[in-house]
Amino acid sequence: MIRHFYRAMSPSVPLQEMIRAIRSARTQCEERGVIQRECAAIRAQFRQTDNGGRSHNLAKLLYVHMLGYPAHFGQMECVRMIGSSRYSEKRVGYLGAMMLLDEKQDASLLITNSIKNDLSHSNQHVQSLALCTLACMGSAEMSRDLAPEINRLLRSSNSYIKKKAALCAVHIVRKVQDLGELFVPSAHSLLSEKNHGVLHGTVVLITELCERSPGALERFRKTVPDLVQIMKGLVISGYSPDHDVAGVSDPFLQVRILRLLRILGRNNEAASDAMNDLLAQVATNTDSTKTVGNAVLYETVLTVLDIKSESGLRVLAVNILGRFLLNNDRNIRYIAMTSLQKIVATDHNAVQRHRGTIVDCLKDQDASVKRRALELSLALVSASNIRSMMKELLIFLSSCPPELRAQAASGIFNAGERYAPSQRWHIDTILHVLTTAGGDVRDETVPNLIQLITNTSELHCYTVHKLYRALLTDISQQPLVQVACWCIGEYGDLLLKGECQETEAVQVTEDDVLDALEIVLQSHMSTPTTRGFALTATMKLSTRITDNVDRIRSIVSIYGSCIDVELQQRAVEYNALFKKYDHMRAAVLERMPVIQKNSLGQTNGEVSEETIKETQLAKVRQDETPQQPAGQVCDLLDLLGGSQEPLQPSSLLGDPALTQPTTALTSAGGDLLDLLGGLEPSPLTPAPTVTVYEKNGVTLTLSCEQQSDSGLTITLTASNSTDSDISNFTLQAAVPKSVQLQMRSPSRDSLPARGAAKLTQLVVLNNPNKVNLKMRIRVSYTSQGSVIQDTVQVDSFPGLSAAGL
C-alpha cells in the first residue's frame, strides 16, 4: 500500500505528504525506501538551474536530517539560498546552515560574506537570521571578521536587534577570548536599557567577559550599584503581565543578575558591601511557595555564601536552605543538602540548627537524597552531639541500602575515632557496626580495633566476653569473627575466669571456647584469613588453659596438610613449637604488648612522613650501635636463626592484618627456618616514591620495584585529603606497544575523607626490548556528585635506571 501510495506522489510532493508517508511505513525497510526515493528526487531538482521549489525541497531535506539520515548534499543549496533576495528562501537557507553546517565544514566559509551583507540589511528579520546563524555555528575566523559588525549592532536603536547581537557577542567571546575588550564599552552602556530582553542578553555578555578577563572583572565591579538598582526594581515592582511568572517579576533576569553579582562580589569587600542590603531584601521578600521563587532564593543563597557577606546574612542563607529541606520536592531537598555540605566546614553552628531535619532525610525513599543526607549527617558529628548522632546513624546503618553501608560504616568509624566520649563507648560502637555491616567495612578496621582493644587494658575482660557472645550468635561477619578470635586467643584466661564487673558474668569452659574456634575453622563462611586468626587463637590458648592441650595439639596437626599454603605453614610452625621448641612455647605465645600509635591525630593506621623519617633515623642509629649478646630472654625471633636485621613478624603468630616491628635477637636456639629449607631473611629496601598527580585533594604516588631484567612492578597509591569521600575511583594505564602491561585489581574503589585510607594498585610491566619506558595514567573519580577525569604523563620512573630497563 505504501509503495503504491508513494508512486502516485509527484516529485514535488508537499512536506506534509512526505511526513505522512514516512510515518505510515510499517517497517524500517519501508521507511528507508520512502526516504531514498524522496532524496533522489530532491537531489535531481537541486541540479536544475530554474527551480521554483528550492525552499520546499530543502525543508523536506531538513526533516530527513532530523530523522538521522544523511543530508550533506544539501549544504551547497543552503549557501545558494542564503544569497537569495527572497526572505522565504533566505529563512530556510539559514535554518539549513545552522543544521547542516558547522565550523569544521569548508562550506561554512562561503556564507561569511552573505552574513556580513545581511547584518547591514534594512529588514530587522533578515538581520536577526544572520545573527542567529553566526551565534549558532560561527567559527573563530568568522568571529574575527564579523565582530566589528556585531559591536555596531549593539549600539543600534532597535531593541530586537540589540538583544540578539548581545547573545551573538557571547558566542564570539567564547570562540575568541581576545575580542572581549571590543564589547566592554557597549556592554556597559546597555545596562541602562529598559527592555528586559536586552538586559538579559547584556547580563549574560558581562558574565562571560568577567569570567574570562580579570581586567573586565575589575571594570565591571564599578557597575554593581547599577545592577543593584535593576534588581531592586524587579523585586519591588508591581504586577507586570509581560514579565510575571507565578507571581515573580522576570525570574530569569533576576537569576542572571544574581549570578553576575556573585562573580563581582567574590573576594571583594567593597562590592560585597554594596549588595548586602539587596540580597537581604530578595531573601525576605521572595515567595518560597512556588518553584519560581525557590529558584531565585537558591541563587540568592549561593551568592550570599560566595561573597564576603555579613554573618547575619549567611545565617539567613542557611535558614533558607533549612526551609528547602522541608519542601516536598526531592530535587529542592537534594540541592539544599548539596549546598549545606559545601558550607558545613565554615558555618558549622548555623548548619547544626537544622540537624534534626537533615537526620530525617535519612529516611527518604530517594537514594540520591539519602546519600546526601548521610554525607551531611557525618559532617555534622561533633564532640557535643556524638552520642545522639551515632544513635541515629546506627539505626540508619541497620536499614540502609547495600550501596551505602560501606560509606556509612566508614563515616561512623572516623567520627568515633575523633570524638569518642569513652573507650568503652568506642568499642561498643565499632562492635555494633561489625555486627550490622561487617562485610562492608574497610580492610584496616580489624587492626584498628585490635589496637584499640590492646590499649584499653581495663576493658579486656568486658571486650572478650562480649566478643565471645557475638561469636556464638553469628559467624557470617568475617571482620567481627577475626577480632573475636584474636581477643579469645589473647585474653582467653579472662574469659575462662568468668569474673567481669563490666558485664553479666557467664561461666565458660575450656571445651566451649575450643568448640567455638573449631566451628570457625570448619565453617564454609570463613575466609582463609579468618581461619588463620582462629588457628592462631587456638594455639595461644595452649598456654592459657591446662586440661585441653592435647586437643589443641590435635587441631593444629590436622591443618599441617591443609590445601591453603598460609594455613599449612602456620600449622607446621605451631607443630614445631609443640615438639622441638616446647620449652619456649610459653614465652613465644605470651600476650602482645601495647601497640602505640605512630603519631598524634593519625587514624586508620596511617603513617605520616615524619614518622617514616623517625623510623629510618632509628634504624640508622641501631645499625651504628654494637649488638649486645642475648641473655636468657626467650624471644619469638630466636627461632628465626638469630638474624640481626630488623624484621617484620611472619605468619608464625601473625594476625594477618596486624604487624608490629620487632628486633631479632641472637640466640643459641635452633633455626625454625631449617624446616623450610634453610631460608635466610634479607633486609627490605624501600622503593623510591614520586608524586605523579596532585589535584582536587587527590594525590597519586608511584613507586617501582625490579622483578627481573625486563620485569618491573609499579605500585600506584592514591589518597584523599578533602573533607568528603571520593567514590568510583579508577585508574587506567597505557604504555608503548612493545611493553606488556598487566593491571592488578585495586585494593578498593573509594577514597575516604581526610586520608583515612589509601588505595593501592599494582601494575606489572614486561619490557623485553628495553625501549624507553613511558606511561600515561588516566584518573577518574566522583567527588561531591561531580565526575572528574584527568590524564597524566609519566616520563621518568624512580629506580628505573637501577632496574636496568
From TrEMBL:
Cellular compartments annotated: Cytoplasmic vesicle membrane; Endomembrane system; Golgi apparatus
Official protein name in the record: AP-1 complex subunit gamma
Family of the protein in this entry: Belongs to the adaptor complexes large subunit family.
Pfam families: Adaptin_N (PF01602), Alpha_adaptinC2 (PF02883)
Keyword Membrane: yes
Segments passing through the bilayer: none
Signal peptide residues on this chain, from the entry's feature table: none
Organism the protein comes from: Characodon lateralis
Domain called GAE: residue spans: 685-798
